[in-house]
Amino acid sequence: MSHPEIAGTPSAILRMREITKQFSGTRALDGVNFDVFAGEVHALIGENGAGKSTLMNVLAGRFADYRGQIEFAGENIRIVNPRQALNLGIAVIFQELNVLPNLTVAENIMLGHESAGRLPGTLDRAALKQEAQKTLHYLRFNLPVHERVENLGQAHQCLVEIARAFRTKARLLVFDEPTASLGSDDVEKLFAVIRDLKTRGLGIVYISHRLAELPRIADRVTVLRDGKVVGTRNMAACSLTELTRMMLGRDPADGDCEWEGRAEVRLVPENRKRDGNITGRPVLENINASILGRLSNRLGYLSPRRLREHGETMMQRMQVQPLLPMRDIETLSGGNQQKVIIGRTLAANPKVILFDEPTQGIDVGTKAQIYRLIAELAAEGRGIILVSSEFIELTNLADRILVIHHGRLVEELSGDQIDEESLFGACVREQKE
After folding, report:
1. Are 308 and 360 in the same domain?
2. Is the pTM here over 0.90, yes or no?
3. CATH number of the domain that 224 lies in?
């Protein structure tokens, strides 16, 4: 099947300018500018009530009484109803999926585009299945066209809705909290689909409260607060701390963190390239950076012998490969860079270690090594705080799990309570409330 794809230099498939929308005298949107390029994932974030849903509902044709201008695919338009938005090629996949559970996969995909059968009032079901299968094959979705949608899991139901949107020649897809009710495996499958759609030239808007997801899927991110745009950033150059500050209008935290009266917590940061590596410097300097005082002589000068001996010992302990202390850290693989950062943290002999997404973007073998190390450190009597978006990571390693939602501790799991189903239920339950 064919589909409009855009090659070459990315162009803005959508431009929204000075979008304003009021409800009973209250401005839900106040002069919002927002655009999306072809072949881009543009994240839209903000607290509840920031205006995200209102802006997307304007785009989807649900609100006709907005002010401002919209340009889509190079044409100035005014979207006044959902049918017009669909006909233009704008599809919104809401958190509450809009599939018909009693119909088959094929019937859902072809809804509104069915071919009539030979007899009056009948459908050509063979053609319906054939056309649906063409769409699934083009998207590389492995779904049974004859299966009722109610028998599919949440992730596969989402794929059905994506396939239907694609069938209607959608050029812009909006995902509204798509991972809110998905497990970690299904999240990975969805991300793979989104990346594939991006390569086909679609513009994608990604709305999520899970900020940790954004570096893995978004190219740019726009923050809304109180109906206004706070700013737009390239995701690769923006920290989650900065995004949180933009969302809240203030720093996300204050107070003190002590262990037995001393500041004794070490961090293995989420973004190793930006917050962990000493860029442009060799592995030897990176792995020793936390204990330079111990490696200096009485006059305060670093001892090259101590520096090398300790660095090589720690590299061997952490199984950093290749074992080349003077090699620039940026030339190592992501997993080996992470080992260097963890080795530097352990060198300081901290009592408490905060691992923030410690296995993000690394290979399976290194993941297993880090899992063993975390278990060993806990067995030694150290306190381990593990922040992770991988449920299986938490359930396999944690003795207690604290579920936090919008800055509040909402549930605690321990002992026999800890399993993926219970953790998933705790997260979904709080979001629904």
Report:
1. yes
2. no
3. 3.40.50.300
